Records
---
Amino acid sequence: MKRLGTQTIKLENPVSIIDTASIVGKKEGEGPLASYFDYILEDEYWGEKSFEKTESKILYETINKVLQKSKKTSSDINYILAGDLLNQCISSAYAIRDTNIPFLGLYGACSTMVESLSLGAILIDGGFANNVIAVTSSHFCTAERQFRFPLELGSQRPQTSQWTVTGSGASVLSNDGSGPKITTITTGKIIDMGIKDANNMGAAMAGAATDTIFTHFNETCRNIDYYDLIVTGDLGHIGSNLTNNMLNKIGVNIEQKFTDCGILIFDKEKQDTHAGGSGCGCCASVFSGYLYKKLKEREINKLLLIATGALMSTTIVQQGESIPGIAHAISIENL
Amino acid sequence: MKRLGTQTIKLENPVSIIDTASIVGKKEGEGPLASYFDYILEDEYWGEKSFEKTESKILYETINKVLQKSKKTSSDINYILAGDLLNQCISSAYAIRDTNIPFLGLYGACSTMVESLSLGAILIDGGFANNVIAVTSSHFCTAERQFRFPLELGSQRPQTSQWTVTGSGASVLSNDGSGPKITTITTGKIIDMGIKDANNMGAAMAGAATDTIFTHFNETCRNIDYYDLIVTGDLGHIGSNLTNNMLNKIGVNIEQKFTDCGILIFDKEKQDTHAGGSGCGCCASVFSGYLYKKLKEREINKLLLIATGALMSTTIVQQGESIPGIAHAISIENL
C-alpha cells in the first residue's frame, strides 16, 4: 500500500536525486551559503536587457549546469517540471522553449520546488519516466516590481517583508544512479490564515506549513527524532516562529531540528533582508546548493523538506481578499 | 513497456473518466452546444463583485457539480489538479481553498485541461490515487482585461482574435467505475513560431499543435483512421487551418476527422466571435459538456483530444519576445 494517509504517499521504489545545480545572484553570493552554489552572478542583469530575461537565463543555465553535472543530455530527460512566480510562469516557459524536453508547467508559488520534486518522483516511481528535471527560479527585481512597487520608487520595506532570492535550483531525478532518495510525499491543502498584507508572506504561509508538517508526522507515524533536519521553504524568521508556535500548541515540538531556507540564505545581522529570504529560487537554490551537498556528504541523512507558497495575486488582494498558503513536503533520505 | 516514444506513454491500466461537469457563461449558452452544459450563467457576474471572483465561483461550483454527479465527496478525492489563465492562477486557488482536497497547481495556459487529465491519469495508473479531479476555467472579462485592454475602452477586436470562453469543466478520474478511458498521453514540447501578436493566439499555438499531433501518430504507430474524432483545445478557425496546412505539408491529413473546441462552441455566423473561442474554459467545457456525452452515448468511441496553450505574458511580449505555444494530447476511448 503506497498511501499512508489522506495526504501522504510512500514511494515503492524511492527515487534518487542524482545531481543538483544552483545559480544565485550577487547578494545571495555574499551570504553564508556562498560556497555551496555553482555560480554567482556579478550583477542583476547577467548581460540581459530586462530582469525577466535575466531570470529566464538563470533558470536556463541552471538546467544546463545540472545536465552537465549529472552527465545527461536533454534527450535523456523524459519530462521537465517547472514553474515560477512571474505572471504566466514566463521564466520557465522561455527557458524551457530552448531545451526540446516535454514540459509540464506547474504553479505553486514558492512551494513549486517541492511540487516539482514530488511529481517528478511520482513519474519515475510509477514507471512513466527514467529521468526528470525539477527546477524553479525567482529574481528579486522581477518579483518586487510585479507584486509590490516599481523598483525606481525605492519604497521602504517593512520589517515583516522578505527578500525574494535571485536564483534557481534544479535537480535530476532518476530510476538509475545513486544519490539521496525521495521516499515519502505529503501534498498540501490550501490554508488561508486571513492575512491581507503582501509584505507579510511568512504569516500567510505559516498555517499551511503547520498543517502539512503536522499531517506528515501524523500520517507517517514518524516522530521528530526520525529526521536530522526539518527545513521549510521560505517562511523566513517571522513565519518560522509562527509555525513553531502553532505546532507547539498542538503538541508537536520540532524546534531543535527546524530551520528555514529563508533564514539560511542571508546573514540576518549583516545583510539587512528583514524577515529573511523568499521566492521559488530560495528553496530551490538552498536545497540544490547547500542541503543536497550535506546529504551527499552524509552530514544529514534524513531530511524533511517543506516548500511553502503564498498564492498571492495583486489583482485579488486589491479586491480585498486574503492570501492563501500551501505547503508540500517530501522526505529525502540516504538509504 | 509503458513508453511508446520520446513524448508518448501508454497507460497499463486505462483510467476511467467517471463523470464530468460544465458551467458556462451567457454567450456560450447561446451557442450550438448550449444543451450539453450543466448550467448557464445569466450574466457576467453571477452575484459576485468582480469578474475574478465570478471566475473562481464558476470553477468552485463546477467542482461541486462533478462531485455530486459522480456521487463522490471531497474526502474521496486524493488530488485536485487545476490551473487557469489569471496571474498566479487565482481562480483555481481561491476556489480550491474551500474544498479541503490536496492540491497540485498547474500552469499550461489553455493546454491546462489536458495537462491536468494527463497527470491525473498518471497518478491513478501509477497507484498513487484512487480518485482525482481535473479542472480549469476562464472568463472573457478577466482574460480580456488582464491580457489585452480594459473592457471599458471598448477596443475593436481584430479578425484574428479569439473570444475567451467564460466557463469551467471538471472531470473525475477513477480507478474504479465505468466511463470512457484515458489510454495514451503525449506530452508536448514548447514550440515558438515567432508570433508576437497577442490577438493571434491561433497562429501562436498552431506549431505546437502540429508537433504534438504528428508526434502522437508517429509514436503510437496509429493511423488517422484509428480515431473517430481529433479535437484540438482552442486553435479557433485560423489556428486550425494553419495546423491542417502544416500537417498536410509533412504528409499527415487529418482534415476529415478534425475539429476544434474553439470552433464548436460558438456559431461562426451569428455570434461574431471572429476566430472562435479560446481560454482554458473552452477545451474544459466543450470536453466536459459535449465530447464526454458523445463518448458516453458511443457516438464517438475513440477521441484524440489535444489542448493547446499560448504561453503569453504581457510583460515579456512588451519586451519584444514572441509567444511560445504548447500542446498536450490524450486519447480517450470506449474499450
---
Amino acid sequence: MSLIVQKFGGTSVGDTDRIGMVADKVAGFRAQGHSVVVVVSAMSGETNRLIELAHSVQERPVLRELDVLLSTGEQVTTALLSMALSKRGVKAKSYTGSQVRILTDDAHTKARIREIDDERLHRDLADGYVIVVAGFQGVDENGNITTLGRGGSDTTAVALAAALKADECQIYTDVDGVYTTDPRVVSEARRLSRITFEEMLEMASMGSKVLQIRSVEFAGKYNVPLRVLHSFKDGPGTLITMEDDSEMEMPTIAGIAFNRDEAKLTIEGVPDMPGMAYSILGPIGEANIEVDVIVQNISHDKTADFTFTVGRNDLERAEEVLNQVAKDINAEKVTSDSKIAKVSVVGVGMRSHAGVASQMFAALAEVGINILMITTSEIKISVIIEEKFLELAVRALHSSFGLEKEPNDEGAA
Amino acid sequence: MSLIVQKFGGTSVGDTDRIGMVADKVAGFRAQGHSVVVVVSAMSGETNRLIELAHSVQERPVLRELDVLLSTGEQVTTALLSMALSKRGVKAKSYTGSQVRILTDDAHTKARIREIDDERLHRDLADGYVIVVAGFQGVDENGNITTLGRGGSDTTAVALAAALKADECQIYTDVDGVYTTDPRVVSEARRLSRITFEEMLEMASMGSKVLQIRSVEFAGKYNVPLRVLHSFKDGPGTLITMEDDSEMEMPTIAGIAFNRDEAKLTIEGVPDMPGMAYSILGPIGEANIEVDVIVQNISHDKTADFTFTVGRNDLERAEEVLNQVAKDINAEKVTSDSKIAKVSVVGVGMRSHAGVASQMFAALAEVGINILMITTSEIKISVIIEEKFLELAVRALHSSFGLEKEPNDEGAA
C-alpha cells in the first residue's frame, strides 16, 4: 500500500476517451490498495486555444490575466477525470492549485512553488478519495492565480510527491521510459531501467525531452523517486533516483545525448590581455543570450581566438553584438557556423572510471569525425562536431560504450 | 461619481470582438469617473460545450465536479475582459467567485449566496481598478466551487451591488428595456422608463424573460436599483426600483404579461365535502408538479368541479395522478385542455385604483373573448383564455389601458 503521485500530460488526456483510459489506469492502482494523487495538464490543444483567445484581445496579454485564463485548462481536465473515476465507482475529488493551496511567488506565468498545504489532501486520502489536482498552477500569498510555466505540471507532481512524502512520483508520457539515446538515431537504443537524477538532468538539458529539467531538479533536491512510464502501454518504465553507492553494477555511461540547436561563433585575433573573456561575453550576457560551450585558443603572436556556442535562434543577434565588440576591442574578425551539433556521453560512473574521454575520442576518430570543441563536467563529456556527422557519432559512441547491452551482461566498461 | 455594478451576459461577450465592445462601454463609464464592477457570464456556447464534455464522460455528472467544470467558462471571460480593458488603458483585475469570496451554501449547481466579502473589492476600487467578477459562481465554506444555477450571473451582480452598496446595478441584455408587453405581439408596446420590483416580478414570472426572478427578488429585498439596458445600443433602459409613494404620476398599469406554457385540468363531479381540495392537490404536489391558477366551481347537486393549471410539460403526468385521484374520491371524470393561455395586467397602481378588473373584463368582452378562469393578486389580474385569442386579448388590453402612451400624457387611467 503505497502513496503514489501520477502525472498525465495533455496528450494523455487529449479527449474524453483518453480521459476514460486514464481513469481505468488510476482505478487499477486504487484496486490494488494504493493511495493515489493524480496531477493533470490541460487537454492537448486547449492551452493553445486559450493563448490564441488572449492574443486576439491583447497583443501582449497582462500576465496576471493570462494566468487566470490558462489555469482554466487544467481545471477542466480535473473535473472530467474526477467524473470518469466516479463513473468507475472510484471516489474522486478535483482540486485547483489554489484549493490545494500550492503557494507560489507572484511571478506570473513562471511562478515558483514555495509551499504546499498537505493537510486537506491527507484528510481526503484517508477518506479513500483519489485526489485530482490541476497541474501547472498555484496561488500567490494575495490569492492571485499563478502558473508555473513550461513543464509546470511535472513540477506540480514532484512538489506534491515531496510534500506528501509519496513513495513514488510517476510521470506518464508518450514514451515508455528514458533511452540510452534517441531510438530514431540508434535502433539498438535501450530503455534504461534506472538512471540517476544527475544523469537525467544532463540528458534532459541535452535535448532528451522526456522530462522538464525543473521537475528533475526538484525531485533530486527532495529525493522523490521519479518514474517515467507510457500512458497507455504497460511496462516498468525508467526509475530516476539518487545514486546508490552500494550498487556495484551501476554502468559507467547511462546514455548519449545530443542536440542540433546550437551555433558556433568565433572572434579571431583578439589582443591577449586580462579581462578579454569578460569584454566579449559581458555584452552577450547583457543581450540576454545564453552561452553554452566556451573555448579560448592558446594565444599566438599576442592574439587569441575566442569561440563559444549559443542557441541557433540567438545566432543573428549574437553576431551583431559580437561585431560591435570586435570593433571595440580591436579584434580581427568574427565568424560563425550554425551547421554544428553537440554530442555528449553522460554517466555518474565516469566519476570513478578513468578513460571515458579517451574512449570517446577514439571512437569518434575511428569513424573519421573531427572534434571542434570539447567541454566536460563531472558526469558528462560533450563535443561539438560538424552537424552532418551527428548520427554517425551517436551510433559510434552508443556501440563503443556497449549501451545496447543490459548493464549486467557487460564485461568491462 | 457613482459606484456601478454592470452585468454582461453570454451573448454580450460572445466573441473577442464583443468583449472589446463591452470594454469600450466600461471604459466610457470609468472616463466619467464612476467606479465600476463588471460581472460577466461565460461566452455564449461555452457552457453548453462544457456540459457536453461532461456528459460524454458521465451520464449524470457528479455535481461537485460539474461546478468545477462550468465555473471555468466565466473565469475565461473575466480574464479576456480584463485584458481588453487594460489594452484600453483601464486598470482592471479579474476575480473568480472564490477569490471575491462569494460564500454560498453547498448545494452544487443551485447554490444560494450567503455572504460576500467586500473588503478586497473596496481596496481595489479605491486603487482605481475596474473589477471583473465571474458571475454564476461562488465557494462554500469548505472551499469547494459552487454555481448558482440559471440566471446566476444576474444574481451575482445584484448580490455584489447590495454588498458594495452600489448606486445602481445595470443588467445589459439584448433588449433595450422592459416593455409594456411583447413588441412582437403589440407593435405599439412602449419601453417603460421605470417599473417597481413587484411589477417586474409579476412580469418576469409571467414569461417576460428579461431578468431572472431570483435576481429581481434579491434586488427588491436589498433595495438595489436595477437597470435593464441594451449591451450595444445607447439608451436609458428601464429602471427597476422600490415604489415611490411621493410619485403621483405612477401609472395604474405597468404592462401586460402573458404565457402559453400552461395547461388546464378539470376534475368533474367531485363529492362536495371538507378536505376535497387537499385530496386533489396533495397528490399533485407530491408528484412535484407546480400548480398555478386554481378555481373551484360553486357546487350544484352536492358535487363540485375543480379546475387548475399546470405547466404544459407536466400535463401528462398530472393527468395520470388526477385519474387515480378521481377513482379514489369517486369523482365523475377528468378532462384537460392544453390550448389555453394566461394573460395578466400588472401594476402596483391597482392597489389604489378601483375598476381595473372591470375595465379588463370589459375590454375582453368587447372583442368577444370568453374568460375561462380568473385569479387576482394585489398588483395583478390574470385570466385564462383560449390560446387562439391570446394576441387579440393582449392587443385589446394594451390599448384599453392606454399603454402605448407615456404616463405623463395620460388623461385618466
---
Amino acid sequence: MREQVSELTTNRLSLYLRFLNELRGRGVKTVSSNVLAEQFGLNAALIRKDLANFGDLGVRGVGYVVEDLHRELRSILGLDRQLRVAIMGAGNLGLALADYPGFRQEGFRIVALFDNIRDKVGSLSRRGVAIYDIQDLKEIAKQEGITIAVIAVPAESAQEVVNTVVSAGIRAVLNFSPGALRVPPHVKLKSVDLTVSLESLSFYLAREAGRDMSDA
Amino acid sequence: MREQVSELTTNRLSLYLRFLNELRGRGVKTVSSNVLAEQFGLNAALIRKDLANFGDLGVRGVGYVVEDLHRELRSILGLDRQLRVAIMGAGNLGLALADYPGFRQEGFRIVALFDNIRDKVGSLSRRGVAIYDIQDLKEIAKQEGITIAVIAVPAESAQEVVNTVVSAGIRAVLNFSPGALRVPPHVKLKSVDLTVSLESLSFYLAREAGRDMSDA
C-alpha cells in the first residue's frame, strides 16, 4: 500500500503532524477530520483517505485520538528513530540549516557539515556542528551513521557534490540548490523550491490588488 | 471564485508553473492533465479542477497549450509584475536568501536586507544587496516599493521584527523562524517549515528499511 503514497500525501502527513503537535501542546484529546479539513483548507474526505492509507486510525463518532494519531504519524514518517543528517556546504545556507531549530524538534540530528575550503574545515557552526573536509565524507558518514545529506552548495558544484554523496553510500538527498540533479534510482532526491512560498504571497497580493480595484 | 482557493491549491499552481518552465525549455507545445497528474502523483481530475478555478484553460482532445497555461499561471500567481522583497535579518539565513538565485528567476527582486547590528549596516551581501538599519525600514520600504518581507531572524526576536514590518505598511510576510507569529487580519503570513521536506525523506528511508526486512 505504501508504494502508492505520493510525495504530496507525505507532505500533508507532515502538516497534520505539525498541527497535532500544537493540539497536544494545548491539551486537546481528540480531533475530527472536519477540524483538520478546516485547518488546512482541504476536504475532509481527502484527509480520511490520506490517513486510511495506513490502517483504521479513526474512531466513529469521535474522530482521531490526538495522542494515538500523533504516535502513528511519527511512526509512518519514520520519525520514531533518530535520523542523522550531513550538510554539504558550510556557506551561509549550510550554516543556517545546521543551526535551524526545527530539525531538532522532530528528531533529526545534524551531525556534520562538509566543505572543501581549507579555512573552514576544523571549525564549528554557532551551535557546535563540526565542519569536515568533503574528502572525508565516506569515512565520517559510516562512522556517524549518516543517512540523509542536504545539498547547500552553489548550483555549479551541486552535481559533483551529489555524486560524492552517492559514492559515500547515502541514499536520501535534500537539495536546496536550484537546477535539476541526477541520482541513481536507488537514491531518493527531494528538491526544495523556496520560490513556491513566495508565490503564494504573490497570489495573495494580486488578489488584494484586484479587490482594491473592484472596491474603487 | 478566487476567495475559495486554498493555500495548498496555490502551492500546486506553483509546482505546475515550475514544470511548465521545464516543458517550455524542452520545446514541448501541449500537455495533458494526465501527464501533469503523472508528474506530480495527483489524479488528473484534481488538476483539471485546480485549473478550472481560473476559467476554461484546457482544449478538448489537446490538453493545455504550454505557452498559454504558463502565461495564465504567472498572471494568476501575480508574477506578471515585479515584486520587491525585503529580508529581515542579515545572519546566515538572511544572507543565503538574499542571494538565492531561484527568486530572481520568477521575477522576485530582493531589494534590501535589514539588521540591527551596527557593524553589518552599510555593507552588502555577496550579490550586492545592501544591508540597512531596521529603524529605517518604513522609509526604505516606501522608497523602494517593498511589498513582501521575509523574516530570517532568531525565534526570540521574530515577533518584534514582524510588528516593525506591519507598522511599515508591508502586508505580506514570509516567515522562516520557527514558532507562531501574530499579525493583524489585513496581513498575510506564510510560514516555511523546512522540516516537512526532511520528513518526506524520512518516510522514504522508513519504507526502504521495511522493504529490506521483508526481502530478507
---
Amino acid sequence: MQIDLSKIKSPSDIKEMSIDQLELLSGELRAALIKKLAVHGGHVGPNLGVVEATVALHYVFNAPTDEIVFDVSHQSYVHKMLTGRIGAFIDPARYDEVTGYTSPDESKYDLFEVGHTSTSISLATGLAKARDLQGGKQNVIAFIGDASLGGGMALEALNYAPCLGSNFILVLNDNQMSIAENHGELYAHLKELRDTDGQSPNNIFKALGYEYLYVAEGNDLRHLIKAFEEVKDTDKAVVVHLNTMKGKGLPVAEANKEAFHYSGPFNAETGAPEYQGGESYLDIFANTMLSLIEENDKVVLLTAGTPGAMGFDKPRRERAGKQFIDVGIAEQDGVTMTAGMAKGGLRPVMGVVSTFLQRAYDQLSHDIAVNNLPSVIVDFYCGVYGMNDVTHLGLFDVAMVSNIPNIKMFSATNAEEYEAMIRMGVAQTESPVVVRTPGGRLLHSDRKVDTDFYRYEILREGKDFAIIGEGAMLQNALQAADILKEKGVEVTVINPRIISEVDKEALDRLRDYKRVVTIDDGIVDGGFGQKVAAYLGDKGPKVTCLGLQKEFMDKYDAKSVLRDNGMLPEQIAALIHE
Amino acid sequence: MQIDLSKIKSPSDIKEMSIDQLELLSGELRAALIKKLAVHGGHVGPNLGVVEATVALHYVFNAPTDEIVFDVSHQSYVHKMLTGRIGAFIDPARYDEVTGYTSPDESKYDLFEVGHTSTSISLATGLAKARDLQGGKQNVIAFIGDASLGGGMALEALNYAPCLGSNFILVLNDNQMSIAENHGELYAHLKELRDTDGQSPNNIFKALGYEYLYVAEGNDLRHLIKAFEEVKDTDKAVVVHLNTMKGKGLPVAEANKEAFHYSGPFNAETGAPEYQGGESYLDIFANTMLSLIEENDKVVLLTAGTPGAMGFDKPRRERAGKQFIDVGIAEQDGVTMTAGMAKGGLRPVMGVVSTFLQRAYDQLSHDIAVNNLPSVIVDFYCGVYGMNDVTHLGLFDVAMVSNIPNIKMFSATNAEEYEAMIRMGVAQTESPVVVRTPGGRLLHSDRKVDTDFYRYEILREGKDFAIIGEGAMLQNALQAADILKEKGVEVTVINPRIISEVDKEALDRLRDYKRVVTIDDGIVDGGFGQKVAAYLGDKGPKVTCLGLQKEFMDKYDAKSVLRDNGMLPEQIAALIHE
C-alpha cells in the first residue's frame, strides 16, 4: 500500500483515510521532506518534528473554516504539503514555488505572513474576538512551540486569551529545544510537566485559567487525533501540550538539533553540509568577541536565542563561559539586561539579527538610550544583501535605530573597520553604540583603519561631485567613481562610518559642489541620506538620495533591486555625468 | 512622640528606629504625601499603597549598596523622601525639585530613569550579572507591581532571572489593580494566591523556579520587615508577594482607585479635582469612537491598560460593551491582536499614548504592516505640547512609525479634521492607518474638512516661499505668514496631513520657489521634513527643516524649546525675510 502524494490537493483528501493510511501518509511526507531539504535546505528539525501533529490537525479540524495560526511559521511545511502545495515538495523543479513561511499570497489556508516568533497567540485572539462578535462557530488554533512561548508577547497573550471566554485552542509543540538550547525557567517547568505526564499540581497553564491536556506521544497519530478530537469545538481556552521530537526520522537531525534547526543543503546520511562557506563577517564578529572576552573579564556577550546567527558556536560559547549569556528568544529582556549590565560596570555587547532588533525598540530607547548607558549592539544581516524574506528584511534598522537620541550608529565597510568599530564601542564609555555589520561578501582593507569613526572618511578627493556610500554601498560609490574617472570626471568619495548624525565639517567642505549623491544600504526614508539632504538643503549643492523604496519585498534579487532604484555603479555615474 | 521629617537625610536615619517609631514615621510620610499630592498632583494611589513597604525596604536593606530597581518608578515617592529629598515633599516651595520618577541625576539611590512599565526585572538581572561577575555580595531587588508584571518584557525576565542562580529578590506589590482594572489571567492567579494565603499548590512563581513568600498584610511594617529580613542575602531567586492597598490612608483614593492612580490637584476630603479642564482632543476621540461603535458593530476599540489616557471613561466603556477591549499593559499583544481582528473582518482601532507605542514597533511592522491589515492606531500626547517627562516624550513617534512601509500616517490640526481622519481610517480598507492627535489646546475649524488626506492642503497661496507645518506646528506656520504679510510678503502655507510620504504633485508646484520651510512637531531626524528635503534636494528651492533636536529633554518648557530650535512664528518669519 502506498499513498500517491501528488493526489493530495487539500485537507479533504485525508479526511477519509484510516489511521493506518494516515501513518503511511506521514511516513511519505517525512521522506519527501528529507529529500527536498537535503537538496534545498530549510528548517529541518522543526518540520520533521511536527509531521504527525500537522496531519492530525488537518484530519480533525476543518481549515480554512477552522483557523490555524502557525507561530514563526517556519514549521508550516507539512501544512503546505496538505493544502494544495505538494508539488513544491515532491517535484525538484518546483521546490522554489513556496516560501519558507505561511503566506496569504500563496494560499487561503495561510492566514498571515509570519516570520518572527511569539505572535500566534495574539493573532489568534484577534481572530477569536472577530469570530465571537460576528457569531461564528469555528475553532481558532494557535500552534506555538520551538521556544517561541518564552517571548514576551506570547506571554502577554497567554495571559489574555482565556479572558475571551470562548473557544481558543493553544497547541504547544514542546520539542525541548529553542534554536539553540532552551533558556529560561519556563522550559524547566515544561520538563516538570513532561516528567509527571502532565500531572504536576503546579501548572502554569492551569494557573492562567486554561484547561490542559498532555500528549506524551506527540509523534503518534492516534494520541494526537484523540487529543484534538477531545478539544474540538470547546467553548473554553485549552492548552494541548505535545511532547514531540525535533528532527524526528532523520538520525543526524535528531542527534544534532541545533545544527539542523535550519540548514543549507546537506548529506542526508552524514549530515555534512554540501557547501562550506568561506570566512564571513560573522567569523570576524565571533573572533573579535572571543578576543575581547579573553582580554577583559568585564566584557559580556549576550544573545537572544540565536548564537549561531552570530557565528558564536558551541566551542566559543564554552570558552566564553560566564561571559556569554543566552536569554532565549526574548529580545526585550536581552536589550534591557544589557542596560543593567552596563550600569553595573560591565562592558556588554549584544549581537542581534537586524530584523529581530525591531522587537526591542522601546528597550533601546527607554532603557539604553534615555539612560545613555555605554553598551554595544551589533546588528547582523543588514541591507540589501541581508535576508530577503519579507518578514526578515534588514532594510529598516537605520531608520529605526539612528533616529533615537544618544545612540551612535556606525556602519562598517570591511573586516578591519568592522573589528575596529566593535573594539571602539567596547572601549568607549560615552554612549550606547550600534554597529551595523556590512552586507555582501567579506572585504579586507589593506590600509590602516582610521578609527575616528565620528567623522566621515574621505577616500577620494574630487570636485563638483561627491558620492557618500554607506556600508556595502560604498563599493557602488567607488565603482561609480572609477567609471567617471575614465570619463575624466574626478569625484569625491566618502565613507560616512557614522550614520546617526552628519559630519557637518565634512559636509561644509561640499558647500560649493554641484551635486552630492548619498547611497543608503536600506530604505531612503529615515536614513542617513535624508539627514545629509536636510543639512545641505539650504546650502549649495543639489542632493540626490539613493536607496531603497519604503516597501516590503519578498524573495527579491539584490541586483534587480539595486537597478530598480538606480543604485548600480553605472547608474550612479550616469546620474552625475548627465 | 513625633518624627521630624526634615531630619530624614538618608536611610541610615531610620535604621535605629523602633518599629513603633517606624510606624509613626510611615504615618507622617503618608500625611505629607497626601498634603503635597492634593496641591501638586501626581501618582496618588500607587505611592500611598507602598509607604510601609518602602520604609521596610530601606530599614532592612542597605541602599545604595543594595540595589533597588523600581518598576515604572511612579511609586518611588516614599523612596525619594527617605533618600535625601524630603524637602521636596514637605516644603511647598520645593515641590517641583523632584521628578515623578527615579532619576540618577537626582540621587545615587536612583539607578535608572524609568517611566515605562515592566523593565525592572531585566534591569535588575543585568545588575545581578554584573555583581556576580565582579564578586559583589549586595542584594539586588526589583520592585514591581501595579499591573506591570503582565507586560511581556517582565514575563520574559521573570522567566530568565532564576537562571542566574544567585541572589535576586523580586518584590511584587500586588494591589489588585492596574491603572484601570487588571486584565489578564495572571491577576486571577494572584487572587488565587491571596485567597489561599499563598498556599495554593498552583503557583506560577514556583513553577518558574522561585522561592516564594507571601505577605498578606502588605501595609503592616512588622510583617514586611520580617519577610524582607528572611530573604535578605539569599543566594536564590525569591518572590516576596505583598498584598497592599492602593490609595491606602486616603479614603477617596481607596474608594476610587482608577481616578486616583494619577490625579491633578484635588480636594483631599471630597476627591473633587481642583480644576476642570475644558473640552480636549481626548473628548473628541472618545466621542468619535463611541459614535463609530454605535454605528457599526464591527468597530472595536482596544487599549493596552490606559483607557483613561484616551478619555474613554467607565460609562463609555459600559456603553461600548464587547466592542471595547482592555488587554492590560501589554502593548505588543494589543497591536497584534488588532492585526488579528482586522484579518477576522472587524474594524479595529487601538488608542495608545505616543511614548507607549514604542513598545510595539515590531508588532506594527511585522504583524500589521507586512500583512497590510486595515486598522487604525490613534496616537496621543504627541509633539512638543505632549508629555514632558524624559521617559514619556511624544517627539519620536513620527520617526518611528512613518518609516515603516505600508503604514499611512496622518497628522491632524484641529478637532474636525481629527474626527474626519479617524473616520476615514475606519472606513477605508486599503492600509494600516496611524492618526496623530494634535498637541496643544483644542482648535476648531470653521471650514468644511477637505477629506482627501493623502494630499497636502494648501491653506494660503503665496509665491517664492512656502511653509509646511505639521500638526500643532501649522499654527506657527500660519502666524509666521501673518507676520510676513504685514511686511508685504505673501507666503504659501501648507497643512501636509499625510506625513508618511510626500505629496509630489504639491511639492512639484514649489519647484521654482526660493525657499521651503518645513516644521516637524517632533524631532527633525526621520521626520516628514527630511522627506521633503530629500524630494526637493535636486530641484529648485532651498529647504530648511525646522523641528526639535534629536535629544532627550526632561521637564522642558515648550515655548523655550520652540525658541531654541527657531520654531517660533517670528523666528520663522525672520528666516524667510532674512
